[in-house]
Amino acid sequence: MPQQRLERQDERTVSAREGANYDPKGVRVGSFLLFPALELNEAFNDNVFAQSADSGPTASFLQVIKPTVELRSTWSSHMLNVYARGNIGFYTSAPTQNYQDVAVGTDGRIDIQRNWNVYGGFSFNRKHEDPGLPNTVSGPSNVTIYNQLIGSAGYYQKVNRFSGRAEITVDNYTYFDNGLGTAQGVVPNADRNRTELRESLRFGYEFLDGYEFWVRGSLNQRMYVTPVDATGFARNSSGWDLVGGITLNLGGLISAEAFAGYLQQNYVNQGTAPFQGPMFGLLAHWNPVKELWIRPYVRRTVNESAIVGESGYLNTSMGFNTSYELRPNIQLGALADYTIADYQSFSSTNSRYDQYITLGASVMYTPVRQFFIGPSYQYIYRTSNQSGLGYSQNLILLRLGARL
């Protein structure tokens, strides 16, 4: 009598099994899966240059083309991914803001043994800065375009309940001349070219299954190609942070990581006070009911500033994004974000202080696995202690895409 075949029971919910029918399947290429996609967007922005209401905002339609191709390994051990993405935008009434973003990169992992690996990645990115961001001018201007090279490498090992991780990241920024300079309140783009290094060590202890305490220390060095910019400010700096945190993973219900500690960034320029203060963060995934995902976050970083008179700014963001499966092929989304950009001035006592509120909502309909369509809406509101920098912006977008 032949032996009866035993199969693992499918423990997914009915909604999850039905929803999987609308996920992209990819194309088998040897031991890889290829995921090609093409997305065409039509948008309307009622304040392209992020101007105050008194300045007479410029409205424009925007057409966006987003081709993507990703190659993902399906090996039982080790991992290798390769990707290429495009993001090309054309403004009907503001052609100076047209952009052609590109990202090409790879990341991977080599498994030495179970819970012991090395990993890393490299990418080339051509990006742009949207008006209204902390480093952009207020009012009509040429778009800021830059290239970013990113390289990273890491080592991870876990022995019993103890784990260790070492990482190094290198970011290189090269900006293109857009005709803006000190007359517009920003340093010339050539003076923003730099390399940033970051090294970190992290040690953890899993005191219960799914619960880990850890401590992490990081160093960074920010080195500019032009040591002293057009305003006479030496922008090179170095910094450190030390934090302790906890990570928990309760299966499919919730996973979270929270930490708190202290940071400091020291500038070469004499007389410039260092950035220093508490550092904290949170990233969580909460699944209270099977159709709903809620992802709260808190982030704090020290960022470089291109604004004349400001050495940098402390960026603190908090908010959440959420998704809800109304049906297996209809997904609702929402987001809310509150961000503070707190600048460090080296030329005056009236440092710039900006606050951003961002709200968004979206609907995505997937009639068949290969196609998706849906509208989205985003609202941005900025206040500032500097005159004329407050603005509001509404962005309406219709997405249409095809994928395999």
- Compressed to H and E, one letter per element, the order equals HEEEEEEEEEEEEEEEEEEE
Q: Main sheet?
A: 18 strands, antiparallel, barrel
Structural class category = mainly beta
Share of residues in strands = over 45%
Could you give a short description of this structure?
By secondary structure, this protein is mainly β. The chain contains 1 helix and 19 strands.
Topology:
Elements: H1 14-20, E1 27-29, E2 32-45, E3 60-73, E4 79-91, E5 99-113, E6 116-129, E7 144-159, E8 162-175, E9 194-208, E10 211-224, E11 237-249, E12 254-267, E13 275-286, E14 292-304, E15 310-327, E16 330-345, E17 353-368, E18 371-384, E19 391-403
Antiparallel strand pairs: 1-2, 2-3, 2-19, 3-4, 4-5, 5-6, 6-7, 7-8, 8-9, 9-10, 10-11, 11-12, 12-13, 13-14, 14-15, 15-16, 16-17, 17-18, 18-19
Write structural notes for this entry:
It is built from one helix and 19 strands. Helix content is 2%, strand content 65%. It is globular and about 55 Å long. The model is unreliable at 1-18 (pLDDT under 50). The chain has an 18-stranded antiparallel β-barrel. The chain has one helix spanning 14-20; strands at 27-29, 32-45, 60-73, 79-91, 99-113, 116-129, 144-159, 162-175, 194-208, 211-224, 237-249, 254-267, 275-286, 292-304, 310-327, 330-345, 353-368, 371-384, 391-403. It has 404 residues and is an all-beta fold.
